[in-house]
């Protein structure tokens, strides 16, 4: 029960950290999570969670690196293979040698082998920390891909170097030839086992489907178990479990590319499930790190044999050495293996070589792999003596993690790519056009995924509509998209204003009741709010309120529903007149600047009049309209999620993201206005 209680608290802290980040977006989420983890260990109920390195690697590192392997673009990784290997192998071993000798020189009580072990465990960068910073800090694309590829590989090289250094410290025996051969066997073996096991598991999934068992839940279970099984099997075989899960993730992405559309439900479920799992694991990693810090610090600060100020100085010196070594390595080897790809960006980065190297150096954040490795140091040597300065080594590792994370959080935003306000008007226009086309393509993909035999006609009509929208958006590349967006909003608001005036006139003439007029006014209030606000939460609450009110009336006020249905003709007649008033108002404001936008809005009003006045034979069936509206609502939600994803990846600025959200609000407003609300 105590473990269950602890897990619930930790999960709650993950949620609180993301909530705090909304109020202080300039502070990275990992820092909030570390702080909350440390705080909860210092106040009642004094949560403590001993870090088991083996369990930590299999439970957290395996699935996180497996997902990184799936998501990282293979083509870009391959084009950067030379610099990635230079960073993941060359820099790691250079760090072990240089930092190892430095640590032994500055802290003679740490034997040379143990100093090499500490340097080795400090050498890997943390893929989770890099990903967490990436959504807030806009690094050049090539640097980001280099960091991602490096973090996938250097965990294995750093841990292997750490393993041999610890073995040398424990036994007093070390052979460079044996260590090199063992490293190659462990690395290559891990890659091979991971790839082979991934292929076997994917063939198992295909076999299950061939039996007619399209059970998404069962197939999803196989996917979730995959990284854990591969890691454990690889480690049991004596090879790198980390490289095994990375290789499996890459193979998974290759296999997914070959899967055809009939398995769309599995892909949708997989994406949704993994997004939740990764959200929790990413957060728990840093919360657990925070939990360990007070215990680690307490041992050092309470030990009279340590000078606290001197120990903190060691942390600063070692951290600065790691940054300087990383900077020098990148500066010297930056152009290695760049080839001809992305030549324009490479040339631009070369022109600012010092800044580029500094950005890459500061991005080398250390994380929980470092701390978990430090905790795995044995307590005793082979001779039966206590492992020298084990507590100090763990404390230094924790201090370097905090130092690099704070340095990246503070300095990278100041040095990285220009902020949103620095983008030129033309750049933002190009971003918005490209993003809106991407949203429409996302809507097409979701519509295809949701297409069944029953809703096929509605889906095909929507796909045709989206394709037409894409063609229109692409034609706006040479036009002023910002002006187009503003004009569209103004025209829609003009139409709503005319509708409101018409309803007021109908009430005065006694053509509609006050109750029906109130329904119109409620809907117009919602539409005006959606067309003018950028606050998504309030908009969603307003929409949900309408839905819940309709459900409530159906369940608890059936007589009211019957009464409303009897007034449907009154509503339709009034709606036709408001549409005609809107068309008249918009037509009266036509000019060269708004003619194209106004024509599109007028067309939508005319389509609504047709649907309200056409005979039942000429109208779309109710079932068809329901299918169509359901598909459009799903596409709207997918587009909204895609905006957030693009913003987190740095593809669009905050300003463009807000404009896109406002555009999506307008689309949803149109959906709400397509048919009357009964209840």
Protein architecture, described:
It is a single chain. This protein has 679 residues and is mainly α. It has 2 domains: 52-417, Na+/H+ antiporter like fold; 425-672, no CATH class. 80% of the residues lie in helices and 0% in strands. The protein contains 27 helices and no strands. The chain has helices at 2-23, 29-42, 53-71, 74-79, 81-106, 112-122, 127-134, 141-171, 176-210, 216-236, 241-258, 264-302, 308-333, 343-351, 353-362, 368-375, 390-415, 425-450, 456-475, 481-509, 514-532, 536-556, 558-566, 568-588, 595-613, 622-649, 654-672. Helix 1 (2-23) crosses helix 2. The protein is elongated.
Structural descriptors:
mainly alpha; 679 residues; elongated; 27 helices
**Could you tell me the radius of gyration in angstroms?**
30 Å
Q: What percentage of residues falls in helices of 4 or more residues?
A: over 70%
Q: Report the CATH topology name of the largest domain.
A: Na+/H+ antiporter like fold
* Element-level helix/strand string: HHHHHHHHHHHHHHHHHHHHHHHHHHH
Just give the CATH class of the largest domain. Answer: Mainly Alpha
**Main structural class:** mainly alpha
Percentage of residues in DSSP E strands: under 5%
Count all strands and give the number: 0
List the domain count as a whole number. 2
Number of helices: 27
Question: What composes the largest sheet?
Answer: none
Q: State the assembly state of the protein chains.
A: single chain
Spans of at least 5 consecutive residues with low confidence: 336-345, 534-544
Distance between the termini: 47 Å
CATH architecture of the largest domain: Up-down Bundle
Mean pLDDT: 78
Principal-axes shape call: elongated
């Amino acid at each position: 029960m105590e473990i269950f209680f602890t897990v619930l608290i930790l999960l709650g802290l993950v949620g609180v950290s993301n909530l705090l980040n909304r109020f202080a977006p300039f502070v990275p989420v990992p820092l909030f999570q570390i702080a909350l983890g440390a705080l909860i260990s210092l106040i009642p109920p004094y949560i403590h969670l001993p870090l088991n390195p083996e369990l930590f690697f299999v439970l957290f590192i395996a699935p996180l690196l497996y997902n990184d392997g799936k998501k990282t673009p293979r083509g870009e990784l391959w084009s950067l293979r030379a610099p990635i290997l230079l960073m993941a192998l060359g820099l790691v071993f250079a760090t072990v040698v240089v930092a190892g000798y430095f640590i032994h020189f500055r802290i003679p009580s740490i034997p040379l082998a143990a100093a090499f072990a500490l340097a080795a465990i400090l050498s890997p960068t943390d893929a989770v920390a890099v990903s967490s910073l990436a959504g807030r800090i806009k690094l050049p694309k090539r640097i980001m891909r280099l960091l991602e590829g490096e973090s996938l590989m250097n965990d294995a090289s750093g841990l292997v170097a750490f393993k041999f250094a610890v073995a040398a410290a424990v036994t007093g025996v070390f052979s460079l030839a044996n260590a090199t051969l063992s490293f190659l066997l462990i690395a290559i073996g891990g890659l091979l086992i991971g790839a082979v096991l991934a292929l076997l598991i994917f063939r198992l999934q295909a076999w299950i489907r061939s039996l007619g068992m399209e059970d998404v839940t069962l197939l999803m279970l196989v996917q979730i178990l995959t990284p854990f099984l591969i890691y454990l099997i690889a480690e049991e075989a004596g090879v790198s479990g980390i490289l095994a899960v990375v290789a499996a993730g890459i193979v998974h992405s290759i296999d997914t590319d070959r899967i055809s559309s009939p398995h769309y439900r599995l892909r949708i479920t997989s994406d949704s499930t993994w997004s939740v799992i990764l959200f929790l694991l990413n957060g728990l990693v840093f919360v657990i790190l925070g939990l360990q810090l007070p215990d680690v610090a307490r041992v050092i600060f309470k030990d009279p044999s340590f000078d606290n100020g001197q120990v903190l100085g060691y942390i600063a010196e070692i951290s600065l050495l790691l940054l300087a070594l990383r900077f020098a390595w990148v500066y010297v080897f930056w152009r290695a293996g760049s080839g001809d790809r992305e030549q324009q960006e490479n040339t631009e980065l070369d022109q600012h070589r010092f800044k580029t190297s500094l950005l890459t150096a500061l991005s080398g954040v250390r994380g929980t792999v470092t701390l978990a490795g430090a905790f795995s140091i044995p307590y005793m040597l082979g001779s039966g003596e206590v492992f020298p300065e084990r507590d100090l080594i763990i404390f230094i590792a924790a201090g370097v993690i905090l130092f690099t994370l704070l340095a990246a959080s503070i300095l990278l935003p100041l040095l990285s790519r220009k902020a949103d306000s620095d983008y030129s008007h033309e750049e933002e226009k190009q971003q918005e056009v490209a993003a809106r086309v991407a949203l429409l393509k996302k809507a097409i993909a979701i519509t295809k995924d949701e297409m069944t035999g029953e809703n096929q006609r509605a889906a095909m009509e929507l796909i045709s509509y989206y394709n037409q929208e894409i063609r229109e958006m692409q034609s706006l590349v040479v036009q002023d998209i910002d002006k187009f967006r503003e004009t569209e909003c103004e025209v829609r608001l003009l139409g709503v204003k005319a509708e409101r005036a018409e309803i007021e006139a109908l009430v005065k003439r006694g053509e509609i009741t006050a109750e029906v007029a109130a329904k119109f006014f409620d809907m117009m209030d919602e539409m005006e709010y959606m067309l003018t606000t950028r606050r998504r939460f309030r908009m969603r609450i307003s929409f949900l309120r309408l839905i819940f009110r309709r459900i409530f009336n159906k369940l608890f006020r059936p007589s009211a529903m019957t009464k409303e249905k009897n007034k449907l003709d009154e509503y339709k007649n009034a709606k036709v007149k408001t549409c005609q008033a809107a068309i008249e108002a918009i037509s009266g404001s036509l000019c060269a600047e708004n003619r194209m936008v106004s024509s599109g809005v007028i067309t939508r009003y005319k389509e609504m009049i047709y649907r309200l006045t056409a005979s039942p034979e000429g109208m779309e069936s109710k079932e068809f309209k329901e299918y169509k509206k359901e598909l459009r609502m799903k596409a709207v939600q997918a587009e909204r999620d895609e905006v957030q994803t693009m913003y987190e990846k740095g593809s669009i600025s905050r300003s463009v993201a807000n404009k896109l959200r406002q555009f999506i609000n307008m689309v949803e407003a149109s959906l709400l206005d397509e048919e009357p609300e009964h209840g």
